[in-house]
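Progress note, sequence design subtask.
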């Protein structure tokens, strides 16, 4: 974080007007500080090294030799602690499947149509800076797959927990949102989800990441445009 305690944000957006609007909007947020802006991927990559932002906010698609996902990966290779927030239009939602599965910490994927207020964007950036993975609720609200799928084997309560996991919430916050459950119960549900989906803690991918990605990949089938 910046010395003031605010989250430092680097803005990457090819459209000059939208880039300026984002910078002005962030200037009005007490918890955020826009430390720089870039119109293309190469400039963004350089500024990420020079300015050490807590979060890089990337509009899809930044012009240059890399798209938003690739740019985020390049930045994280040099600065793993940096959060990456990708703003995408609906037609780009298929890129969600390309989000890094091993380096998932701090990745956030939002549809531009979902950013109905600055509060939504601020929460996403703060969550990203804390290392949380946040997925747009409109993507995680897609229709559930057939009964033969891994998702189809889960109960409605398990699905509710998994949906909140996909939105980036930790177990404590999930327990708060599902008032009927305590944090220990949520932990048990999460472990049952791993077991029901055939996921283990072995290998490079954390089962929470694998569970969320499976949910998104299988659940998107009914929403492809």
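Output:
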């Amino acid at each position: 974080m910046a010395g003031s305690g605010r989250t430092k944000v680097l803005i990457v957006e090819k459209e000059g007007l939208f880039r300026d609007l984002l910078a002005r909007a962030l200037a009005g947020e007490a918890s955020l500080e826009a430390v720089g802006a870039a119109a293309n991927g190469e400039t963004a990559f350089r500024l990420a090294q020079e300015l050490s932002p807590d979060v890089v906010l990337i509009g899809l698609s930044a012009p240059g030799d890399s798209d938003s996902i690739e740019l985020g990966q390049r930045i994280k290779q040099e600065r793993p602690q940096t959060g990456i927030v990708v703003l995408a239009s609906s037609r780009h939602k298929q890129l969600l499947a390309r989000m890094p599965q091993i380096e998932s910490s701090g990745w956030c994927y939002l549809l531009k149509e979902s950013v109905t207020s600055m509060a939504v964007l601020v929460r996403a950036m703060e969550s990203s800076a804390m290392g949380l993975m946040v997925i747009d609720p409109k993507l995680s609200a897609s229709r559930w797959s057939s009964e033969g799928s891994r998702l189809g084997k889960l109960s409605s309560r398990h699905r509710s927990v998994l949906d909140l996991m996909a939105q980036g919430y930790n177990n404590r916050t999930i327990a708060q949102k599902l008032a009927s459950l305590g944090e220990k119960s949520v932990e048990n549900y999460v472990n049952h989800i791993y077991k029901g989906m055939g996921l283990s803690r072995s290998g490079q991918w954390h089962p929470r990441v694998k569970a969320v990605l499976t949910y998104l990949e299988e659940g998107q089938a009914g929403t492809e445009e």
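The radius of gyration is 18 Å. Work on this subtask will continue into the next period as scheduled.
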